[in-house]
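hey team, just a heads up i'm posting the complex here instead of the shared drive bc the drive is being weird again. everything in one block, sequence lines first with there labels, then the predicted structure for the whole assembly after. its two chains so it's a bit long, scroll down
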Amino acid sequence: MKIWTSEHIFNHPWETVTQAAWRKYPNPMTPSIIGTDVVERRVVDGVLHTHRLVQSKWYFPKWTHALIGTAKTCFASERSTVDPERKQMVLKTNNLTFCRNISVDEVLYYEPHPSDASKTLLKQEATVTVFGVPLSHYMEDLLTSTISTNAGKGRQGLEWVIGLINTEVKGIARGTDELLHSTRRSIDEVTESARKSMDEISAQAAKAAKAMHIT
Amino acid sequence: MSSVGEDCNELKQQYDACFNSWFSERFLKGQTDDSACAPIFRIYKECVKRAIKEKKIDLREIDPIFETGIEDDNANRSAGNHQAGKS
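-- predicted structure starts here --
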């Protein structure tokens, strides 16, 4: 089992960050997330509870396919709560489809920064467990580093959405069509470069595997 | 951003737009009544549940918070399951 944690401060109030969190996808930094659906949602005692199904594409190096399957489209289950009074948003995600051998659990906490309420603190934890697979430590390391890379991209993605929301709020005199057009173009450009960098990671992992004589 | 069911995409866009404005304009301002988007959510949710069933995605246990007996979704299910081969 591998546990990975991280903290990040957004220079935006909690209300802005939570609005952006719902609109986090699509963003150009995390092209791997291809779909979200709300399965259940309800307000209970002033707290918003949501269950979402998240579709993603993970690009694992080829040599791992025999161990964990080709994982083309993955489904994850995301359960969240938003408590507007305590100002806390918690999202718990666990994967549903990698295969029976791997479990990835992730928790995100968004809270106002304890010493500066105009900022938001994000705490992130991921637990990776690989069962009954040869080289499972190596696999856990690989998955943990993939999550770490994705988490960084996720934070950049959220900043991007916040920027978009702030632009909307300011009501900039640009036409919506033009904004959409340029947004789409920048998504395409960044998607391309993100793919490239994942390919590089894959190539390096394959090289490492070759060095370990396991291909 | 797409829905798990291709035919649910338009409902999803409509629902998400409704939710986003409800969340920022009402919920964060202390109004917890969520009936504003309820009609579109009901239709969208039905569509998603159908797609999940067709694609045989196992959502595992549903959080007990949602099991308060309001929904009854086994009542009028059609038996149109696609028996896709397991990969």
